[in-house]
Design goal:
Blueprint (H helix, E strand, L loop, with lengths): L1 E3 L5 E7 L15 H16 L4 H6 L3 E11 L8 E12 L2 E10 L5 E12 L10 H9 L7
Antiparallel strand pairs: 1-4, 2-4, 3-6, 4-5, 5-6
């Protein structure tokens, strides 16, 4: 099974930059973008009908195998941020998410990113995505096949 999605659905997660996420100059520390991508990813899965908690209760872990981030413009303290998350590729043993992180007020693209995940069991062995989760992700957050 493999699904490469040319025009994937997306989910928008909203947050406000907290002071603790910035350096002394009020600029967001680079590692916080990874946390924001996790927020987007969990919101995307939830919109597809599966929380990470439910997936883990079913014995599935989605481990991060690769992360890429391109920083384009700084986010600053108190900015409203939109994390636009989409599914880029879905295979029985690999899931790839894409992210655009934008300032909400002026739509400035702050960063782009991509994470690749491998489904594993609780022992850390790579497994096939369970059919129901594969189907939910392939249908997407809108409930319509991509």
């Amino acid at each position: 099974m493999a699904t490469d999605l040319a025009q994937p659905f997306s989910v928008i997660s909203c947050l406000r930059v907290r002071y603790a996420e910035t350096d002394q100059m009020g600029v967001v520390y680079h590692a916080n973008y990874l946390v924001w991508m996790e927020i987007g990813r969990t919101d995307y899965c939830r919109a597809c009908g599966y929380t990470y908690r439910a997936m883990e209760a079913a014995g599935l872990r989605l481990i991060v195998a690769d992360v890429r981030v391109r920083y384009l413009s700084p986010a600053r303290y108190d900015d409203d941020i939109h994390i636009i998350t989409r599914l880029l590729s879905l295979r029985s043993r690999q899931v790839v998410f894409g992210y655009d992180i934008r300032r909400a007020t002026d739509k400035t693209l702050l960063a782009t990113g991509e994470t690749t995940h491998l489904p594993t069991n609780h022992e850390g062995r790579i497994i096939r995505l369970p059919a129901d989760i594969y189907t939910a992700l392939s249908i997407g957050p809108s409930g319509q096949a991509a």
